[in-house]
Amino acid sequence: MLQAPPKTGKSIMAAQIADALASGTKFLNWTPIKPWRVVYIQADAPPGDWHGQLTQLGFHNSTALTIDRAVLGLFCLDNLKVRLDLKATLFTLKAEFVIWDALEKLSRADLNEKEGCQKTLALLEEVYKGPRLVIHHPRKMKEGGAWTNVDEVAGNHYLAGDASSIISVKKNGPLEGWMKITGRLMDSLWKMTRDPGDYRWLTAHKVDSGGNSSGGDSSGNGGKSIWDTPAP
């Protein structure tokens, strides 16, 4: 799961991840072991805005494919025909990795209730059972609240419990930001910089709990990239 407040750059990051996975090229400090067949399901941004953003980022010719809201409509998971068509499309495309943007635009189910979370996640699984990245918004934290990732996930805690990893992004001015990765095998904090022209994320440096650069490897996993895992 990738979560961040509105206008933080999470969709830009997701587009960068999609392009890097599809082309087999580096994103920040990580490089996939092979090109993946990536499909980006964009249910959040209006189609014109999204394709304009991809052009600005230089991704208009990316091998990552986009299925946008003009095709799906809002709350596409609630429509049986759309689900079946989307499932067939992903099968035809031989998709290996799917990015869903964003969770609250995919279904009207109440994500504050466990049953609503279970329903939405079951529908995602029905459409595509392979690896996926789901984009979501965090809950509003009280002033001075700890940055814990799991507690920040908006909605019922069932959502956070289902995610194998949670990536949270926060801005620190227009050209800097923080990324916290919480997973079953890692917990790390990164300081990032952005391009002043198109605002893509450019660099990530692992830091300690006090915000100081700790050096060491970029993966937080014994020198092995977190993407260096066999394809399913």
Structural class label: alpha/beta
| Number of E-type strands | 9
The number of helices is 6
CATH superfamily: P-loop containing nucleotide triphosphate hydrolases
Helix/strand order = EHEHEHHEHEHEEEE
Question: Span from first to last CA?
Answer: 18 Å
- Major beta sheet summary: 9 strands, mixed
**Which strands sit side by side, in order, in the main sheet?**
3-2-4-5-1-6-7-8-9
Estimate what percentage of residues fall within beta strands: 15-25%
CATH class: Alpha Beta
Key words describing this protein structure:
232 residues; alpha/beta; Rossmann fold; nine-stranded mixed β-sheet; 22% strand; globular; disordered C terminus
What would your notes on this structure say?
This protein is of the alpha/beta class. It has a single domain (2-207), classed as P-loop containing nucleotide triphosphate hydrolases (Rossmann fold). It has 6 helices and 9 strands, in the order βαβαβααβαβαββββ. The protein has helices spanning 10-23, 47-57, 69-72, 80-92, 114-127, 157-162, and strands spanning 2-3, 38-42, 65-68, 97-101, 132-136, 165-171, 176-183, 187-194, 201-207. Strands 3-2-4-5-1-6-7-8-9 form a 9-stranded mixed beta sheet. The longest helix is centred in the first third of the chain and has 14 residues, at 10-23. It is globular, with a radius of gyration of 17 Å. The two termini are 18 Å apart. 34% of the residues are buried. The model is unreliable at 141-145 and 215-232 (pLDDT under 50).
